[in-house]
Amino acid sequence: MTDDRAAAWEETPAEALAWLDAHVNLESLGVPVGQDRRATHPTLERMEALAALLGSPQLEYGSVHVTGTNGKTSVSRMTAALLIEAGVSTGLFTSPHLVRVNERMTWDGEPIDDATLAARLAQVALIEPHLPAVPSWFEILTGVALTWFADVAVDGAVLEVGLGGTWDATNVVDAAVAVVTNVALDHVEYLGDTRAAIAAEKAGIIRRGATLVLGETDPALAGIFAAREPGRTWLLGRDFGVRRNDTAVGGRLVELFTPSGSHPDVFLPLHGPHQADNAAIALAAAEAFVDEPLDPEVVASALGRVRSPGRLEVVGHSPLVVLDGAHNVDGAEHLRVALDDAFATAERTLVVGLLREKDPIEMLTALGAVDAALLVCCAPPSPRARDPRDLADAARALGVPDARIVVVPDVADAVERAVAATPEAGQVVVAGSLYVVGAARAALGVS
Predict the structure, then answer these.
(1) Which of 3.40.50.1000, 3.30.428.70, 3.30.160.60, 3.90.190.20 is the CATH number of 313-443?
(2) Which of 42, 98, 86 is closest to 380 using CA atoms?
(3) Residue 298, number of CB atoms within 10 A of its CB
(4) What are the E-state strand segments in 119-260?
(5) Domain coordinates in residue numbering, the chain
(6) Contact at 8 Å (CB) between 430 and 322?
(7) Per-residue pLDDT of the chain (447 residues; tens, 9 = 90+)
(8) pTM for the whole thing?
(9) First-to-last CA distance in the chain?
(10) What does the alpha-carbon distance between residue 235 and residue 254 come to, in Å, rounded to a whole number?
């Protein structure tokens, strides 16, 4: 890699992305069927070496580090929005993306542009030969985000864990605020097959003396987080939380409280009762980071404009079309509750695609497939996709009649089929994987 090659990449970013895509990407590949990722020794060695050769950019700003089984992207987006509204120059790193990789990193709400992304990728390519081992796709992007945030001199960064916590590439940061949204069974091939094991993995982001904003309220897990010796722990329902959580037109009307006081009548333009908890967690995280109360006008303005693409996102009417990235049982159950809470009862068509690690019986049960007027089984655009015929077989095993099951492998075709088959007063719900949601957004022309 030369400076000339780097300049060329800025002119043709597709070459930079092709270089990135040549690296191992566990998001796309996962683990081989029948193997357990925990059987291999996880390490931060590659990421620590990469960060060091990049000049340890993560040391140039404070950070909020966010993990959890569900809700971490929404919490990360809300936290960043609150900090930006409060005048904090803020970087945000989330995953996965829905359509373009640029979505993963933003500065004050604006995604990284193609030329800058290519230039930062070229910087990593230049130092790659000096690393002890070839970095992964996600490690490279983490390095790019950390470096870009330092380049633009952010005051703070909100970093969402890619997977777990202890061994995630983002865990090279020394975050003053650690956030754990919740703990449920997911990614058991990576994190463990008990909630305690998963909690221990997620607790790995907590630095001694840091502030822990804890959305997981199970007392059986409390000791796992306390063992990390945070300086202070703010617990959902005790130190911060939700006093009012009402359905409103276009979202929810909530009252939030933190150790500094209460914020009544806050409009949240997101659907689902669980989003109120996410907002409370984000508000606590933002106040912990700035170490002072946020002005009520800042809170109302930031949360009143927040968006969370692919999370109970309404993208069409007549019929209603809702996209949600629910990809585990806990998320699917929250989706079902939210649909019943936010929208009138109507004939419902489900478009579902799963990755191979997911149990189709459990997911279809959580999504309420038995009650659906039509189930359209598709395949996420991923090498990890589960054969949609497996979903159809699982639906039959649950008692769904053949007449209410169709298999349409391509997501775009599946969405088209679903919309055409659903009456104008009905609902089309697309779920099961963020890969499915991303493909559906692209097919529907959602920006």
Answers:
(1) 3.90.190.20
(2) 98
(3) 19
(4) 156-160, 177-180, 211-214, 232-235, 241-248, 251-258
(5) 3-304, 313-443
(6) yes
(7) 456 666 778 778 889 999 999 998 876 555 444 444 444 567 899 999 999 999 999 999 999 999 999 999 999 999 999 999 999 999 999 998 988 999 999 999 999 999 999 999 999 999 999 999 999 999 999 999 999 999 999 999 999 999 889 999 999 999 999 999 999 865 545 565 689 999 999 999 999 999 999 999 999 999 999 999 999 999 999 999 999 999 999 899 999 999 999 999 999 999 989 999 999 999 999 999 999 999 999 999 999 999 989 888 999 999 999 999 888 898 899 899 989 888 889 999 999 999 998 999 999 999 999 999 999 999 999 888 999 999 999 999 999 999 999 999 999 999 999 999 999 999 999 999 999 999 999 999 887
(8) 0.89
(9) 34
(10) 18
CATH code for residues 3-304? 3.40.1190.10
- Residue 157 β-bridge partners: 63, 91
Residue with tokens 């970093």: 159
